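Bug: C-alpha cell stream looks shifted between consecutive jobs. Job 1:
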Amino acid sequence: MKALRNMLLILLILPIAASLASAKDIKMSVNQTEYYFLVGEQGAIDIEFDNPFNIPTEGMITYTVTQETNQGGMQYSSTNTQSQPFTVPQGEETITFNFGSSDSPMKSTVDLSFSYQDTIIELNDLEIHFVQEESQKQNQENKKKSSKKKEPSQQQKENQKRQQEQQQQLQEQMQQMQQQMNQVFQNQQSPQKVAQQDAQDKVQNNQMAQDSSALKQQMQQQLKDQEEMKKAFQENLGNNQDFQEKHKELLEQGYNLKSGNLDPTNQTSGSFELNYEKEGETASLKGAMEDNQLTDIQKTSSEEIKEAIKALEQDPRFQKHNMNLAEQQFTPLKPEVEQDGNTTTIKIPYENKDNQTATITAKIEDNQIKDVKLEHSGKRRWWIWTLLTALLLITSYILYKRYVKKNTENKKDKPNEKPTNFRKEAKKILEKAKLLFKNKKEKDAYGKAAEAIRFYYSHKLDLRTELTNSDLIKLLKKHKIPYEQTQRCLNLCGLVEFAKYNTNKGDFNEIINLAVSIIK
C-alpha cells in the first residue's frame, strides 16, 4: 500500500516538475509584429526579455534581415545574417535593437533567435516598413512571444559554432576592408581638406567678409553633406557581397589596396575604381552600383593580362597571322586589353616602316581562346597618295584665291577697329548691378554682378564667348589664376538666382567689392 502511495505521488510530481522546468526559459516578446517608419528614420524595435534565472545569461544572438525593394517595376531581395555574443540581464528588461534605415520605400523581415546553454528561443516574422508619408503608418498592437526550438544535437552545435566562427571571420574581414578603404580615401582627401582650409582662412582674413557668415555656413554644410554621402556610399559598397568576393580574390592573390576613387550620386548609387599593387604587379576593381546592387564590376590584373597574352602566343591561329606579318616586316606594338565579365579582348597592333598598320584581335572567354582575327590596312599605292596630294594643293589654291585674298583686301579698305576696353565695359555692368539692387531688383542685380565677372575674364583670356560659372572656374584653374574669390562670388550669385539664398545688402556689397578687386 505504501509503495502504491509513493508511485501515485511520483506520478503527480512529474508533470509539475516538467511544467516548472519548461517554464524556466528565457522569453522574448514584442508589442506588435509590424512596424512602420518614415524613410530616413531608424528602424528601432523594442524587444522585451524575461530572464527567470537569478543571474544574467550569456549566449549568442542571431538576426536575419531580408530586405525587399521595388525599382522600375522589378522586385529585388537581399538577406543578411549576423551573430554576436549577447547577455540577457536578470529579470525583465526591454532592449532596443536598431535594424538600420532606408532612403527609399522598403520592407524588411526580421528573424531573431537567442541560443544559450542547450536552448534556442526564436522570435520570427517581424516586419519593418519604410514609407514616404505619415498617413501610411499602420502601427497596431499585436503581441507576440518567442517560441522554444528543439535542442540541437552535438553535430548541429558544431555546425552552428562553425557558422558563427565563419560569420565572425567574415565580419573581421569586412572591418579590415573598410579600414583599408578609409585609410586610402582619407589620404586622398587630405590635400582637398587642406585646400578647403586655406580657402576658409583667406575668407576669414578678408576684411570684406564680415557679412558672409551665412554663405560660409551654407558652403561648409554642402561640403559636409558631400563627405557624408561619400562615406555612406563607401560603406554600402564594402557591404556588397559581390564586391567583397572580388576584393577577397585579390587579397588572396597577394595584392594590397593602394588607391582609389569614388564618384557617388547618392548614398547607394555611383561609380568606383580601386587600385591594388604587389611586387611590381597591378590590379584594379572598377564598376558601378545602383540602389546597393552592382550593375557592373570588372576585376583586372597585370598577371592575368600577361597570362592571357602568353596563352594567345601559343595559339596556332595567332602564330600563323604573326608569321605572315613578320614576313611583311611588320613590328608588334604594345597590346591593348579590355575585360568585360568573363570575356577578355586582346588587340595587338602592328606597324611597318611605310606606316602601314595591322591588328590581331582575339577574344578569350572562360580561359578559352574563341576567336582570332587579322585586320590589315592593305598596301597603299604611291600613285593614290600622289593624286590626293595634287587634289589637296589645287583645292587649297582655289580657297586661297576665293576667300583669304579677298578678306585681306577687305581688311585693307577698312580702318583699324578700336579694341574693346573690356575693363571699362565690365565696370559699366557692375554699375547696372548696383542700380538694380537699389531699385529692389536683387535677383537681377546678383545676375549682373556675375555677368560682369564672366565678361571680364572672357575678354582677358581672349575667348570673347559666353561662359558659364563652372566653365570659368575650370579655365582659371587651367591658367593657374587664383580663383577662390571668383568662385565665392559666382556661387553666391548662383544661389540667389535660383532662389536658394535670401539676399542682403552686406553680402551684395561684398560681391561688388570683390568684383571691383578682380576687374582692375
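Job 2, same session, no restart:
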Amino acid sequence: MKIKAIYRILAIITLLLLANVSFAQSYSPISGPVALPVWADPAFASLWTRNDKPVADGAVQRSWAWGPGPGRSMKEDIGPNLNDVLVQYTDKARMELPNPNGDRNSPWFVTSGLLVKEMVTAQVYSRQMNPVALQPAQINVAGDDGDANAPTYASFTNNLASVADRTGQNVDKTIERDGTITPHISVALVGIPEPKFAHFEPASGHNIADAFYTFLNQTGKVYDNGNLVEAPLFNWVYVMGYPISEPYWTQVQVGGKVHDVIVQLFERRTLTYDLGESDPMWQVQMGNVGQHYYAWRFGDHQSQPMPPAPAPPNVAPAAAPNNDTFIHISDDQFTYKGSVIKMKGSNYFNSQNPWAEMWRRWDGPQVDADLSRVSALGGNVIRISLPYDVYRIQPVIWQGLRANINPIFIQRINELLQIAAKYQLKVDVSLFDWYDDAPGANTPDDRQNKMYIDAIVGAFAGDDRIFAWDIHNEADIYFNWQHGRADKVLAWMGRVTAEVRRLDPNHPIGISMSDYRNLYYKPDPSYKSAIEMSDFVALHSYDAGNIQNQIIALKNISSKPILLQETGWPTGPSGVSNYNEPTQRFLYSLAVQAVQTQNTAGLLQWTLFDYIPGTSGANPADPNSPLLIQDFFGLIRTDGSYKPAADVFRSYSTISLPSKTQTNAPLTRAPKDQW
C-alpha cells in the first residue's frame, strides 16, 4: 500500500461556509471521513520524495525507505530538553523538526526518531523530563501481527550488550520470543550462501550482517531537484542510527506461512532479511517501526499500510446461476428479466455508524432496519463503499501483513447482501473507496490490489444480488488526479477493470468522477477514458439546475446507460444560506425532472440518513467534532422522520428487483470491545 489521498474537501467546505458560495456550483461530497494526513512540513515531503516517490511512481522496484506516504503529525516531547517538536509518523519511522528556524539545507534539519531504542528500553521522556513508565513493546518486530512465536521488541531488551568484531564469520545465533539466544543450525540445506558479518560498528559494538550492509550502502534511482538520478539511497547512520543488537536468525509467519528471517535492530529502524521472499528486491526490508511505535505509545494503529505481500493464485469465480435475475444492458438502458427498468435508490451507510466505520462497528440488525427505509421509499438498489485503505478499518479487511482478506469482511458483505435481497434491492459495490495509490503494473501494491479484487469479486461473481461493480469513487478529487497524474490513475483503472471483467462476466462495471467532464477526459488518445472503460456512465452531480445539460453533454459522447449515481443537497448546518429543507426539496424536484426528461437509466440519492452531528468530523468518536454538511444530506432526519424531499424522491417510481440468491444466516453485531 502506498500514498494516502490528500483530501481537500474540508478546506473547500470551510471556504464555502465562510464565503456563502453556492454549494451546487462548487462542491461534490465524498464518502467517509475526510481528514486524512498530509505532509506537515515541506521538508518532510522533500525527504520522502527523494527515496520513495520513485517507488510510488513505479519507476523502481525496491522496498520503502519511509513508507507509502504521510501519517499522523503532532507536537511531541523529544528527549529531556526538546518540547513541542513537530513530528510526523510514516510506516517505517518518525520524522522530526527539532529546530524549525534552523538551516533547511542541513542534512540534519529533519531528524528521525530513536523509536526502536525507546521500544526496547522503554525510555520515553515526558514534559517533566522523566522517563514515561512504559514496558518494552510486546509487538512483533517482523511477520504477521498474530504470530505468537515471533520475537518482539521486548525480546531484545536483555540482548543489547556490545560484542567483539566478528567480521567474516557466520551469523550463527537465533533469538526466541522470550529473548533466549541459542546457536543456529546451518542453512546449507536451503541452497543459499551462509550469511556472514560484513561490518563491525565500533560506535555501538555490534556486527552488521552482509545482506544488511549491502542494503545500507546501495545506490539507486532517487529524485534530485525533480530529476530521476542514480545516487546512494541514504546515509545509513542518519536513517538507521547505530546497530543496538546483533543480527539474529528467527522464524516468523508471513501471510500465515513460516519464513526463516534474520532480524537486526538499530536505534531508529529495524531490518529483516526474509529468505522466504522470492523477489530479491523485497528480501531486505525496513520494519514498520513507525506503525509499531505509534501503537505502543498511543494505543492505536498508524494510518499507513503494512508492506505488501505476494499475491495468491487467482480465485476462480463461482459458477453463475441463471442470468435472468442479473441486471443487463440493452442500448442505453438497464434490463431485468428482459424488460427495461429504472434503478432508484440510495448511497447507503449505516445510520448510526456511517462511512467506513460501518464495517468496523458492524450492526446487522441496524442495517436491516435501515434498508427497510430504502424499500419504503420505493428503492430497488443501494450503493455501498468498501474502505480499501482506511487505517482504522484495516484489521476488519486484512489479515496479518495484508497477506489475506479477512473472512469476517466477506461475511459482512454477504450479510449486507442477504438483507438487501430481503427487501428486493440490488447492490452497487464501490471497490476502492478512500484510496489514491494507482500503483504501477506488476508492483507489489499492484499485486496486492489484484489479490483484493480476486477475493472480493471472485467471491460474488455469480451472485445476482450484486447490481454492478464500481471501480473507484471519484478518483478526480484525490491528489494524483489533481496534481497532473491522471494518466497514472487511468492506467491503473484499466488494469483493475480488466481484472474484474476477467473474474466476472455477469455484472456491469462503472467508474465515477466528481466532475462529469472527467468521465471523458484522457491525457492523450492512447489512453481510455473512464467512460470508455465502463459499461455505463456513473454521473455524480450536485448542481441540480445543470444536471439536464450534463446528461445531454454525456449523451453526445456515449450511447451507454447514464445513471445519476450521486445527487443530493444538505439541510444544515443551521444558519447557512440555502442549506435548508425547502431548498433540498426544490433541488430534488429538478434532479428527478432531469432524469425523467432525458430518459436516463436511474437515480441514486446521497444519502438516505442524516447522521448524528459531529459524525463526519475529523474524529467521529468525539461528540465535539465540528459539524460538517455531510451529516445533513439525509432524506430522513436523525429522529427517523422524513424530510419534504423524501416525497419528491418517492414519486420517481420503478419496480423492485428480487434476486434468486437467498440466504438466511443470523444477523451479527461486532462486539463493542472491537469498536
